[in-house]
Design goal:
157 residues; 73% helix; elongated; mainly alpha
Length: 157
């Protein structure tokens, strides 16, 4: 977990900064800033259109009684793609666009679904703490005794 956080919060921003500076040297600072702004605008428009399309597919799936599993995963990928596009930088923009474009999103969705399924099956087989286990069979009769204490009237009356 810690190595992933280091990559996300330290390595990726450093790579983004280095790439922005390199592109700025090649095409100029104003063109670089313009590209970053254009990426954000394009991404927000694409996110809006793809979000609406996924919402339509989601409602169609639920109306037809089919579980909307791929639509839910698509929605999560679109939100992640939009968040990446709002982050300034060319690497995160490229990843964000790949999550927003339907052909690449479909590939990523299949890979992600396969990995999630594999993790769930592996978790069930290994029996993690808190896993459901079958309780040993018990009889339905419970023996015990009760003793009445105090008066028959409840307190406060």
């Amino acid at each position: 977990m810690l190595p992933a956080l280091v990559v996300v919060f330290i390595v990726v921003p450093l790579l983004e900064l280095a790439l922005i500076l390199q592109i700025g040297r090649e095409i100029g600072a104003w063109w670089t800033i313009g590209l970053l702004v254009a990426d954000s605008i394009l991404g927000s428009l694409l996110m809006r259109a793809q979000g609406r399309a996924v919402w339509r597919r989601f409602t169609q799936a639920t109306r037809s009684g089919r579980p909307p599993a791929s639509e839910v995963l698509d929605g999560a990928l679109i939100i992640a793609g939009g968040a990446l596009l709002l982050t300034p930088g060319f690497l995160t923009d490229a990843l964000g666009l790949s999550l927003l474009l339907p052909p690449t999103r479909a590939v990523i969705r299949r890979v992600l679904a396969r990995r999630l399924l594999h993790r769930m099956v592996a978790g069930m087989q290994s029996g993690p703490v808190g896993a459901w286990r079958a309780a040993p069979p018990r009889g339905s009769d419970i023996e015990g005794s009760a003793t009445e204490t105090g008066s028959e009237r409840p307190r406060g009356e």
